[in-house]
């Protein structure tokens, strides 16, 4: 089976930052969360996939095709939703369709109209009057109106309320249910991913920290809690990151490496916990 997306050894250098040797793949029929702290390289990775930026080295394939050599063909089958609207403020829904539809061979006017109705978007209101949630739904309608096989979402839930985020989760799960479509979902709101993501790719400071199943990631790590006096050098070495208060400490470590004592408390780690403490590794704590 051909993967929807395959990123192999991709590197991109900027002054003061390097996205270093990133590799991951996304099979058909799944949702992958792309996570990491701000400035980790998530948006750079998406821009490289879309060929907005050119990699210094490595290879990116979508639908089994090189993303540079077959860019025009590939983008017929990609739908993209960014964190901010790229439509002109004075446009209405009909203007958006008029501007975008000529670029896609498979644009479906009826499907677009059905999506606008499903999302209850006003057809005669200017986009500058749309709420943040309405703008996201309009971008999603455009992404879905041309039978895209891959959705790439870059922080689409930023600024959305819980109801709008829940609606998006339902839409994405419905989108992939035929087993032929996939989603790459970059977000810092990890609760959205814990409900719907099958895979996680975690980039930290430009380097790949983890790629694989969500279950595999959260099962790999545990939170350790204890008294400040129990935080010796040996325990510090076991942990990826930790924080200390007057009453105790908590940190993150691979479950298999923890030397359990009677007084230490071990708890399951959430995706938020893993991102938080892994981002502390190598930083002042």
Written description of the protein model:
This protein is α/β, with parallel strands linked by helices. The protein has ten helices and 14 strands. A six-stranded mixed beta sheet has the order 6-7-8-3-9-10, sandwiched between helices. It has a four-stranded antiparallel beta sheet with strand order 2-1-4-5, with helices on one face. A four-stranded antiparallel beta sheet has the order 12-13-11-14. Helix 4 runs antiparallel to helix 5. The chain is globular, with a radius of gyration of 21 Å. The model has no long low-confidence stretch (mean pLDDT 90).
SSE succession: EEEHEEHEHHHEHEHEEHEHEEEH
Please tell me the overall pLDDT. Answer: 90
Intertermini distance: 45 Å
Which strand-content bin applies to the residues? 25-35%
Gross morphology:
globular
Low-confidence stretches: none
- Which bin fits the share of residues in helices? 25-40%
Task: State the helix count.
Answer: 10
Oligomer category:
single chain
Q: Biggest sheet, open or closed, and with what strands and sense?
A: 6 strands, mixed
- For the CA atoms, what is the radius of gyration? 21 Å
Order of strands in the sheet with most strands: 6-7-8-3-9-10
Helix-strand makeup class: alpha/beta
Record field, number of beta strands: 14
């Amino acid at each position: 089976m051909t993967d929807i997306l395959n990123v192999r050894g991709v590197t991109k250098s900027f002054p003061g930052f390097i996205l270093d040797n990133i590799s991951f793949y996304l099979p058909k029929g799944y949702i992958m969360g792309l996570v990491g702290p701000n400035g980790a390289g998530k948006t750079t990775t998406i821009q490289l996939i879309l060929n907005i930026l050119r990699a210094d080295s490595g290879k990116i394939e979508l639908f089994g095709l090189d993303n540079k050599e077959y860019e025009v063909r590939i983008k017929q089958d990609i739908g993209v939703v960014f964190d901010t609207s790229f439509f002109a403020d004075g446009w209405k829904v009909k203007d958006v369709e008029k501007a975008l539809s000529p670029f896609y061979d498979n644009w479906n006017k009826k499907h677009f109209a059905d999506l606008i109705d499903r999302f209850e978007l006003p057809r005669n209101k200017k986009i500058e009057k749309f709420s943040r949630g309405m703008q996201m739904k309009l971008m999603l309608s455009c992404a879905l109106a041309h039978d895209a096989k891959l959705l790439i979402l870059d922080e689409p839930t930023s600024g959305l309320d819980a109801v709008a985020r829940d609606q998006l989760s339902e839409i994405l799960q419905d989108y992939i249910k035929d087993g032929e479509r996939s989603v790459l979902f970059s977000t810092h709101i990890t609760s959205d991913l814990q409900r719907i993501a099958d895979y996680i790719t975690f980039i930290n400071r430009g380097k790949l920290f983890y790629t694989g199943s969500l279950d595999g990631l959260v099962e790999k790590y545990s939170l350790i809690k204890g008294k400040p006096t129990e935080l010796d050098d040996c325990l510090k070495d076991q942990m990826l990151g930790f924080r200390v208060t007057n009453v105790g400490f908590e940190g993150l470590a691979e479950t298999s490496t923890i030397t359990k004592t009677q007084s230490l408390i071990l708890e399951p780690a959430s995706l938020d916990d893993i991102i938080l403490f892994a981002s502390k590794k190598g930083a002042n704590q």
